[in-house]
Amino acid sequence: MQRMSRRQALATGSLAFWITPGLYAEQLLLPTPRLTEGPFYPDKLPLDQDNDLILIKDSTTPAVGQIAHFTGRILSRSGQPIRNATIEIWQCDANAVYLHSADSNGKKDQQDKHFQGYGKFETASDGGYRFRTIKPVPYPGRPAPHIHIKVSRGDRELLTTQCMIRGHEGNARDGVFRSAGDIVDHELIQADFTKVPDSKMDEYRAEFDIVIGRTPDDRQLQRPRNS
Question: Where does the sequence pass through the membrane (predicted)?
């Protein structure tokens, strides 16, 4: 099979060639671009850290916002699922307030106390993950709505990135989105947020596969962080 270069993919618009797992077994998937962690990774993690950000503990009051089922797989460049990986997500609430004292302290009246703001999930043999959260909204200074993502395995951090809404008008004005790279990189950090058919709660769903550029082997996973 003739290999297609990245330049050829850009010229022909053949993005699916690069980003669809299993489309061509002999090709390596492009890794998900690394993006900034940002200043608002929670400085105090919530007691409830599960994968449902809509409800906190036993509360029956849901978070404000449009519910979004955020799912996908964590894969190696060869398309193999990565098991036992921990994926963390965090984002601002529907009122554009993060779960971080530097942001929320001055916005007590705005913060949605029913939004968890952070969650994590450990992948099984299929590399899959799933979260119930809200459809992301713009934040002051960040016109592109986004979800922050961190992937680790064992004691090693593998990737920090962000997922943005495909085609959102704010993307072109967003500094982080523009810094990601070329149009292929831009495609790799976006997901379609589509309405769930027949949902009575105006729910959305988005599928975002994450490709890790280099996966540490078992020996690497046993090494301390400062090695």
Answer: none
